[in-house]
Design goal:
heterodimer, A: alpha/beta, B: mainly alpha, two-stranded antiparallel ribbon, 4 strands, globular
Chain lengths: 540, 347
């Protein structure tokens, strides 16, 4: 394989945006059938590099780039993504570009549909051909099979779980007969560990067919698993280009952030003393699409960090969403002995609970408003803070001064990188947005904090900061935290107990020090039978 | 230099170009024998007449209900209030404030139902709103005929019942605001102090409201309803409040309009009014999801300025009376332009 000439070579590519260097003298090569892991923190220049490769107009608009991009040894310079597609480069974007109202098949073969001539062809020419649906379906099925995944060719995109959307997107790229180079930008960011596993297998299958793959991911163990070679970008420099054999996740992580990353858990985790139970949940059900909770009972004690893990779609996300009233729920929830009214976010907040949603951009932030608004809004609406009386209290106006002070406090405490408290939330990077969401929850000074997928889609450095912040608030202010996450490792690093949710029920609760294999068994439902028995005993 | 550049970008090129065009019209006016003082007076007058309608757009835009194409609902409430005021024979201050006070309960009730309806058609508010407006106006066309009004100045002389299309309010509250502290210079310049003060006061109240807890919640609902919900704010309730507020402002707006114009116009007259208000706020730089007081005042001034000046200058240049045609072309042209300018927010 090493003898073949490279399909793609990037030679001394540099790029700057208005004097701000984002790529500096980056070189690497890619051969057919090779999987290249491209890693780097947010802002390291991965996306810019891919934009250059793809001839995105934004590059030319901002002054072009220096260096050469060669395909098959010939220098190319794509004027638009269409040229890149013609040259055989396929791209799977971080955000889906699928038509929600179309089926899997229709999306996969979109604009390249199989045609059958109709009688109108004789009069009006080829434009009047009709779709050959069986042939389209066959092609789509072929692509799905090539990927080695299970996808219903007739399902509407709008009704699919995110994982399937991702596969559809990849299937579409590989049905292009010319595709020789496939770029995947964070393909696993929205997937669960098991879905990601399937995806990685699919990628290896594709590589065997001779397709070269550039795999961009924050999940380093996936890179180590799937890639043949890894290129690490840091601050625009390609600081490492090495075969993956013999490289560990820890090595890559430290190259990326340029410092030693400790994934050690705090020394006292697992053997701390706690107070009285603060939250008692009995027979909770939540009707959250894709994350149905069927029958969950648990209790959390004052000062504890309880983790919820499990595979996607099993219901772990439904637990906080249901208790906080965002989705229809039933059952009994007691906070400090007082009944919590379900299905009313206001009541839940008023009782002293707060929630950091997993849907950061959809639920967690006011993207078009300032950080001040984002952080202070909930406290203002629920606790009447940051309002100052006017005319002897006839009515109350927003206290901008107080909101700014609060925001500045949290910007400092959580190290939120922003130009000012007045900056709009949409202008921040993912990690900093997440910190804003945390600040919003901390601002209501909750007794009990629900945090859902706090590190989804943010880079390694920011992840650590977010987890440290949670731990600090727990230790310093005694905030009880219920954290839901798909990433077992991060649950194990800060939680005192970890509940694994399977099929809408708690399969078991383990200490963080338990063997990985035990968690695996609970997640896969292997230990379920045993545990259900125990649960029903307890309920008697 | 950079500061000027920044200022220009903030203010927006469309507004600067329209402003320059307006200035050019004023410069050209004397050459075609259009009196400048009368024109300025006219522009100020029309600005005052329409500013409240433009202001009425703000709450619904902020709450994410889009542009209030159904402002006619509020105007109808105002018409009911003003006809009742005339019916009861209230004059001057009693007449004006009577009309305002009588129309507010109608506006609140209409706005509440209208708001409930818009909550059921999220995403399609603007289309539905337009037809609610049309339907309301047409329904009232019947009602104006059969409601038992009997004020002699209001009903058809030949039938003895049914309201006229145009009712004079001479002797009731005509120019009540306009003449309050009005400054007259020469024969043809009048500065309508009272009306502009009233508009300014209304804008100030709206500005205050937007800074209260409810106003903040309203804006958050418009920015991201899911965020607002997760923070314990009922999106539907906020949207209903915004629609009621907009409808009440529409009702007060028509009373202000009437006292300046001198007539109550019934039947199909309210049909076009929402469009000019929508155009004005878009010209003022508002988007479908964000509007400020500056957008309102700048927009109302530029739009009404153009609408006043273009027909009269063109008319005098061509020496024929096509002012109505030019007015329609200009106003609808601006509406089209403004609607193409609307900007969306990040989702």
């Amino acid at each position: 394989m090493g003898q073949e000439s490279p399909i793609l070579s990037i030679e001394h590519v540099s790029k700057e945006f208005y004097g701000n260097v984002v790529l500096h003298d980056v070189c690497f090569e890619l051969r057919p059938g090779e999987i290249l892991g491209l890693v780097g923190e947010n802002g390291a220049g991965k996306t810019t590099l891919m934009r250059i490769l793809f001839g995105m107009p934004v590059i030319a608009e901002t002054g072009g780039y220096k260096g050469r991009v060669c395909i098959d040894g010939k220098e190319v310079s794509f004027a638009s993504p269409f040229d890149a597609l013609d040259a055989g480069i396929g791209m799977v974007h971080q955000e889906f570009s699928l038509i929600p109202g179309f089926t899997t098949t229709e999306n996969i073969v979109l604009n390249r549909e199989s045609m059958r001539p109709s009688i109108l062809n004789d009069v009006f020419g080829d434009r009047m051909s009709v779709l050959d649906r069986p042939a389209m379906r066959k092609r789509a099925e072929g692509a799905i099979e090539k990927l080695g995944v299970k996808l219903d060719p007739d399902m509407l995109i709008s009704e699919m779980p995110v994982g399937h959307k991702q596969f559809t997107e990849i299937a579409r790229e590989i049905t292009r007969s010319k595709t020789r180079l496939l770029v995947l930008d964070e393909p696993t960011a929205v997937l669960t560990e098991s879905e990601a596993e399937v995806l990685l297998v699919a990628l290896r299958n594709l590589a065997k067919l001779g397709i070269a793959i550039i795999f961009i991911s924050h999940r380093l163990h996936e890179v180590v698993n799937v890639a043949d070679r890894v290129v690490v970008l840091r601050d625009g420099l390609a600081i490492k280009d090495t075969p993956v054999a013999g490289v560990t996740v820890r090595d890559i992580a430290s190259w990326m952030v340029g410092r030693h990353v400790a994934t050690e858990r705090a020394a006292d985790v697992g053997n701390r003393g706690f107070g009285e139970p603060i939250l008692e949940v009995e027979r909770l059900w939540v009707d959250m699409p894709g994350e149905t909770v069927r029958d969950v009972s648990f209790s959390v004690r004052q000062g504890e960090i309880l983790g919820f893990g499990g595979l996607a779609g099993q219901g772990k996300l439904g637990v906080p969403n249901g208790i906080m009233g965002l989705f229809a729920a039933g059952g009994s929830v007691l906070l400090k002995g007082a009944e919590v009214a379900l299905n009313s976010p206001r009541r839940a907040l008023e009782m002293g609970m707060a929630f950091v949603s997993e849907d950061r951009r959809g639920v967690g932030l006011l993207l078009d408003e300032s950080l001040e608004w984002n952080i202070a809004f909930t406290a203002m609406q629920i606790q009447d803070k940051y309002l100052k009386p006017i005319l002897g209290g006839i009515f109350r106006l927003r206290d901008d001064e107080g909101m700014r002070k609060l925001t500045e406090e949290y910007v400092k405490a959580l190290d939120i990188k922003c130009t000012s408290p007045r900056q709009k939330a949409k202008e921040l990077s993912g990690g900093n947005q997440q910190k804003v969401c945390l600040a919003k929850a901390f601002a209501v000074k909750p007794d009990l904090l629900f945090v859902s997928e706090p590190t989804r889609g943010i880079d390694v450095g920011a992840k650590r900061l977010v987890l440290d912040t949670l731990q600090r608030y727990n230790r310093e202010y005694g905030t009880t935290i219920v954290m839901v996450s798909s990433e077992l490792e991060e649950l194990r690093s800060i939680c005192d107990r970890i509940a694994i949710v399977d099929e809408g029920r708690i399969a078991g609760i383990l200490p963080p020090t338990a063997e990985l294999a035990e968690f695996g068994l609970l997640m896969s439902g292997e230990a379920a039978a045993k545990d259900v028995g125990r649960a029903s005993e307890a309920s008697k | 230099m950079n500061k000027i550049k920044q200022y220009v970008t903030d203010f927006g090129w469309p507004r600067i170009i329209i402003f320059i065009f307006l200035v050019l019209l004023f410069v050209a006016a004397p050459f075609v024998k259009v009196r400048i003082d009368a024109s300025i007076s006219d522009v100020l007058n029309r600005f005052g007449q329409n500013a409240l309608f433009v202001l009425a757009m703000v709450p619904m835009i902020q709450a994410g209900c889009g542009l209030n194409f159904g402002l006619s609902v509020g105007i109808i409430a105002g018409l009911i209030g003003s006809t009742l005021s005339v019916q009861f024979g209230l004059t001057e201050a009693f007449g004006f404030f009577g009309a305002v006070v009588l129309s507010i309960p109608f506006a609140v009730v209409f706005g509440w139902f209208y708001g409930k309806l818009l909550n059921k058609v999220k995403g399609e508010e603007m289309t539905i709103a337009m037809y609610v407006g049309f339907a309301g106006v047409m329904f009232m066309c019947i009602m104006w005929l059969i409601l038992p009004y009997n004020g002699p100045t209001m009903i058809w002389g030949y039938a003895g019942k049914g309201l006229r299309t145009t009712i004079t309010i001479e002797g009731f509250y005509r120019h009540f605001l306009n003449d309050f502290l009005a400054i007259r210079i020469g024969n043809s310049f009048v500065f309508p102090t009272g009306m502009l003060l009233f508009v300014g006061f209304a804008a100030f109240l709206m500005w205050l409201f937007m800074r209260t807890k409810t106003g903040t919640a309203l804006t958050a609902v418009g920015s991201n309803p899911d965020y607002a919900r997760a923070s314990g704010v009922s999106a539907d309730r906020m949207r209903t409040i915004s629609v009621v507020l907009s409808t009440v402002l529409g009702a007060i707006g028509i009373v202000v309009y009437q006292q300046s114009y001198g007539f109550i116009q019934l039947y199909t007259a309210p049909l076009d009014m929402p469009f000019t208000a929508v155009a004005a706020i878009l010209i003022g730089g508002a988007s479908v999801n964000k509007a400020s007081m500056v957008n309102v005042l700048v927009g109302a001034f530029l739009f009404q300025g153009l609408l006043t000046m273009t027909p009269s200058v063109i008319n005098s240049t061509l020496q024929t009376d096509i002012s109505e045609v030019v007015r329609i072309i200009v106003s609808n042209g601006i509406i089209i332009y403004a609607l193409t300018r609307k900007t969306k927010v990040t989702k």
